[in-house]
Amino acid sequence: MMNYKMPEGFLWGGAVAANQCEGAWNIDGKGASTADCMTGGSLHVKREYTHGVEDGKYYPSHEAIDFYHHYKEDVKLFAEMGFKCFRTSINWTRIFPIGDELEPNEAGLKFYDDLFDECLKYGIEPVVTISHYETPYGLVEKYGTWENRKMIGFFENYCKVIFKRYKNKVKYWKTFNEINAIMIMPSIAAGIHMEIGKVDSKVCMQAAHHQFVASAKAVKLGHEMNPAFKIGMMILYPYTYPETCNPVDSIEAMSIMDIHYIFSDVQVRGYYSRKAKKYFAMQGINIVMEPEDEAILREGTVDYIGFSYYMSSVASAEPEKKEAAKGNMIRGIANSYLKSSEWGWQIDPVGLRISLNALYDRYQIPLFVVENGLGAVDTIEADGSINDSYRIEYLRSHIEEMAKAVNIDGVDLMGYTPWGCIDLISASTGEMKKRYGFIYVNKDNEGKGDMSRSRKNSFYWYKKVIASNGGELK
Ligand code: BG6
């Protein structure tokens, strides 16, 4: 019989991002971030990325689920589920409100001291993303965000401050969330004013290069400040199948994955591959680099790969299908073997096993599934219970495949932090009703609700999973 148990010390937990849960967007000295300039949207209405915060518009991050004031209650619930780790991010603008200040904001630093202490009190390891889909808006206005090389210095200064401050509280770090998302949604990922579907790859690759250098500098600095730090990268990983066994479909799928691999290759191996350079030449992408960049990239390779996995994708070389696929956020077409979520994300647990194998075979460094989950509408029953069996089914099937990758295929996996362990604001649509949590938060898309927290059925299920180290998945 298949053994689904994970190795001793496996980091079971959950994940959120500061901008999607904290709220308190202008409290205690915090400045506006790019996330604070994203209006609410829906599956059919794109979020608008405004030039600063404009009057009369609804910005979901401003209050979010007010984790800033509820964190004690929430961490207590995570502890009740038995979390071994909690992945969150630091809101850069709590520490540097504009982004180019020399001195940090003490109130912002204090908040994360308190949050990390609260986690550690229950034996929960904080796993911290340094930049998760928010860039100080001040840096967008004054410097034009990541297209400008000056960003590297601001990021370095921010890292120096947080590494020093949380040196004895945080061991696991990640530099940029879904760093490759800059090629898909540059506004959300890097604050670049550019629409999804109209991405200028020249601008985005230059900005990505600055992030690579910034990340590598952070890794080197972090290791110098505390050799026990484990600093990873984080990639969005949409494994892509060819639609048919027609070899040209395989080439199409390969070329899509090759673009994603530029991001992991540079951060894991420390240089741009020959293939990446060929791609740049073909696309007319001419990255401006400084002479020292190559050495910086080489010296700042990561300790592990964190990745998000929600769905897989399909590629076809047929011109009309190829064109249609470009309009999707993740380039791809429908897979007739898979069902989709209410938001059209194709559910593919086996694809997670394939992804773990593909990444581990390519790099042979530890992996960490730092996001996975099902965004769905939940219904509260008359007795107050929430029977989210669809979410349990999604997570169970993915955990089973993850366990196969570890126990059958020999993949080295550090942990698993399902996304949105407590309901929060959706990054792509800005909605509340696209819920991922084990914990329900009483708030709707219009921002109404008393923010009370309650346990869904998946809460009790996940508690059993953790207690049995994956052995009990029913
Ligand atoms: C990942 C992001 O892309 O997917 C998260 O790192 C995001 O920030 C998550 O919330 C789920 O996406 P969405 O759009 O459903 O919130």
TrEMBL record:
UniProtKB keywords: Glycosidase, Hydrolase
Top EC class, one word: hydrolase
EC number: 3.2.1.86
Keyword Transcription: no
Active site per the UniProt annotation: 371 (nucleophile)
GO biological process, one term: carbohydrate catabolic process
Signal peptide limits: none
A GO term, aspect molecular function: 6-phospho-beta-glucosidase activity
Cellular component, GO annotation: cytosol
UniProt record similarity statement: Belongs to the glycosyl hydrolase 1 family.
Protein name according to UniProt: 6-phospho-beta-glucosidase
Source species: Pelosinus fermentans JBW45
